[in-house]
Amino acid sequence: MQLKEGEKEQILSCVKDVLNKSSKKREDLIPILQKVQAKLGYLPALAMEIISEGTGVSGADVYGLATFYNQFRLIPPGDHQIKVCLGTACYMVGGDITLESFERRMEIKEGETTSDRRYSLERVACVGCCTMAPVVVVDDEVEGKVTPTRVDGIMLALKNGNDQTKDKQDQEQEDGEQQ
Amino acid sequence: MSDPNPQELYSKMLDEAKAEVVSKEGKTRVLVGTATCGVSAGALKIKEDFEREIQEKGLDADVVEVGCIGHCYAEPMAVIAKPGFAPVCYGYLDDGLVHRLVEDFLDGDDPSYEYALAALERNDVFPTFEDFPRGAYEEKLILENCGYINASDIKSYIARDGYSALAKALTGKPEQVLDEVKAANLRGRGGAGFPAGIKWEACLNGGADEKYVICNADEGDPGAFMDRSILESDPHLVLEGMVLCAYAIGAQKGYLYIRAEYPRAVWHVQEAIDQARDRGLLGSSILGSEFDFDLEIFQGSGAFVCGEATALVNSMEGKMGMPESRPPRLASQGFRGKPTILNNVKTFAYVPFIINRGADWFKEIGTDDSPGTAVFSLVGKVTNTGLVEVPMGTTLRQLIYEVGDGLPNKKEFKAVQIGGPSGGCLPESALDVPIDFDSLHDAGAIMGSGGLVVMDEDDCMVAVARYFLEFTQHESCGKCTFCRLGTKHMLDILNDITRGEGDAETLGLLKELAEDVRDGSLCNLGKTAPNPVLTTLEYFYDEYRAHIEEGRCPALVCRDLILYYIEPPKCSKLCNVCVGSCPTEAIFTREDGLKEIDQEKCVKCANCLKACPPEYNAIIKLSPPLLPPEKEKKAK
Ligand SMILES: Cc1cc2nc3c(=O)[nH]c(=O)nc-3n(C[C@H](O)[C@H](O)[C@H](O)COP(=O)(O)O)c2cc1C
Ligand code: FES
After folding, report:
1. CA B272, B276, B282, B285: dihedral to nearest 10 degrees?
2. N or C: which end of chain B has fewer CB within 10 A?
3. Yes or no, beta carbons of B301 and A86 under 8 Å apart
4. Which of B549, B583, B611 is the last residue of a domain?
5. B450 lies in which domain range?
6. Backbone phi, then psi, for B26, in 5-degree steps?
7. Does A102 touch chain B (CB under 8 A)?
8. ipTM above 0.90, yes or no
9. pTM of the model
């Protein structure tokens, strides 16, 4: 994965920051990885290298942890993250069909991020509101009773939201230039 | 001056909390259920709607967030408590209904009973939840406060006598706590049902200067959410149980291991820990005594196997969450090699009740060998989905048909899945099994941590078995060969069966493999992984055979064995809904105006079936030997 401009610096400062605030014991390794992921959205190889150096845990072990636990991701997430629940309750009422609808719409498979890094798609096993099945988590918002037709609605809302923020930024920029 | 004793300090705290609650209750309050289930149904917006409307009308009313009341089928829900009226609970809220309630009930004096679900206190006008048929079966202990108290405010818990068990215990000796828990025969609610008191005693006698108390809130069973609900709705109950345990065994430090997928639970528990510490209910010299104990959250990272005791400890130590062989048990050598108690969220939640009301009282509830209540999350094809608590010994039939009000849409019951990936699927004939640790085990399922999924005629049992095996196969940590490769092999076979492949020997092989995996695995993940397969093979053998021998999926689920078909006599030529709903443009209009599905392009997503207006209902699923007339296929 090619890092974008400025990303390397961002990773370096983020990981240093997290490491400085923790005791660097083996026990802290998972919390460290969690904090770094919370800030960067994923665990870049570079971050794992620095964490390995900082904690004295071998690179293979750090990588082992990052791959063992489902929560950690090794590729950057999209600006919008979509998680489709495939827990028992959701699966039984067509969660897999919902997931496929997203895959078709986004033209990626679960676990991937679109090439423009706008969207990523994941599956999760139960978010704990099975009575609302099938459930989808859109950027931390849990949405219940998602039918395949609602998939289009969700994607459209995200796209419009994106365009709006982009429009707003453009507008602000224009306003700034005018002044 | 002598030190104030815990009881005195607590009484003061209680009086203060009660006074504050009474003064708050003098005012109209709207309690909105904002646990994860409520939020996913739009509860936060409902809360805003109430706040806005109340403000616009200039009314004097508080809007408060509470947890989950258990009737999740009716989310979003709110309770309106207005002085002079019994508190009333409303469900299925939307902005229109909120507007109505504010205008008629908050501003006016009409409780709009036509929209109410139930009252929460007995009154002469409207029934309460206890008056429902299910009320006769339910018995709420650890769910008692859920949905009634403000989880973000410790005073809300204290005012309902919260932490009184702790004050009582601290005035006595630690042994008294242990004796009571032992006498109550409190069995662990995380799955196996091991008596908590015996575990605690072993830990107490484990020597060592340092000991740990850990709460297992990993709740990995996909389709269960009891632990989440309790942590989000009544976190202090669990904290109090943990402090009592720590006092009994002499631990100074404890952790709550909470699942990564539960951000709201983490947030509520953290808030609760901070508030308890501020009031001297955690930290050093708890309630003025000489007992020190503090709690911290450890967030899980999404691995099902980490719910297993030894794997959980490994993961807390920064290692991969792989189970270890036992003994040594955690009670003698656990976290950091020290004696450690690990119990489930619900197990801890019972402790304050047992200390307050006594072991004898507890043993009155439930059965002789499984005293107390059972908490289930009731989901799937059942009318009243949600969280239920019933005494042990209630039968599955009562739970599904009385408490859950049966199956919706007049569908036929097929099976109930209990205990998640480690549990089994029980058929109609097993519905009179009483719910307790031993009876369920004998029936081939397990109590598990309490996920209960009801399945109807539209669910394929082969597909369900395949689903669970795919889950365990994916979650196997890979340490044991049988678990790692055996489950993979089983999954391959099940995949074949759902495609109609396989022969007479396949099912025998599947069973053999299942037994090998069960016998050859170290931890209960592998030992129990075959359960869904073994129980479905036992109870639903015919369904397996239909797949293999006839290439037919009786429930019309397995996608390789079915196809979608538009019945010409039912199709309205004028409607185009199905065409628009199809993501792959497989539906086209024939020359005669009827719609037809191009089977080559169809991905079997069921969009059209859902989209076809109910007045036509023209789209059906077919599985051999019923297939659309061959002629039709070629006519295009
Ligand atoms: C694969 C696997 C997953 C488990 N997941 C959980 C879980 O999510 N929550 C839980 O309380 N116990 C879980 N357990 C059971 C624990 O190992 C342990 O028995 C339990 O937490 C002890 O608490 P209790 O005595 O209060 O039930 C799991 C066990 C296995 C083998
Ligand atoms: S199964 Fe999807 S939220 Fe539980």
Report:
1. 170
2. N
3. no
4. B549
5. 373-459
6. -70, -10
7. no
8. no
9. 0.92
